[in-house]
């Protein structure tokens, strides 16, 4: 049950504490250690996501607040399950485990918690994309300013105003400007005909690149979309090969579908942009993790000797799918949040 809190920030803090308790308890589980470890991994990514959300100056709507409450409820169920795993197995439970050939009844309970988290995370992702669209509408005035500058607004100013603008630019720290600010600076410099931009420590081309998506970033966006579509196609054949991991493959394909939707979002180019040189971009991780997921689903070719490679059990493959899927899920969730923060910095 979600505790009574005064604000969404408090709710995020309460949920973060719950996530950390689950991670701590999962490390000391006496039974279902594999599933406890997987839950710990997933909760760890949720913790990182909430930390990113907490860092934004963002006011959620009621629907998003309800989603956060559902996420807290799901983690609460996970905490109860991990608490139950602190008890050592009895002789009877070992017999049940042997007869079931798996982790016993607890496996189904972990599946239930995973599904509960899935139901909380998907609307959360959609809500963030909607918020991102609303923030983009606020860039309208920046677009108007750009049109005015391209039309020669600075060139038509009295000489005294031009000199004042030049002084302000000389006193500005270009290296800590947002991409939009750098783009506007280039337009002002060109409009005032200040000469070589290299006197600012960068070429005009570099300033322009900072304000928009590069061809490499555009290619990467297409690559992300193509690999996600490959995963969706591979999913159609995988359950027929190994029905034991059908649920995991289905879940991975659903994540791939969300990735495709993300790449087709109106603000996908903005999500690709490297806003800060020192920022490790989540899209890089997403591309790497999608490639790993695709390799997991690719049919394994027999070795040159005519024998297959080292065998991998269904449980091992399911674990690998979960591990890479949690990373994809995190990137999906955090990309809109990182972009929201960049919008805030552009407005600052």
Automatic annotation (TrEMBL):
Record's protein name: MCAfunc domain-containing protein
Gene Ontology process terms (BP): cell surface receptor signaling pathway
Pfam families attached to this UniProt entry: MCAfunc
Domain spans labelled MCAfunc: 22-161
Source organism phylogeny: Eukaryota, Viridiplantae, Streptophyta, Embryophyta, Tracheophyta
Domain of life of the organism encoding this protein: Eukaryota
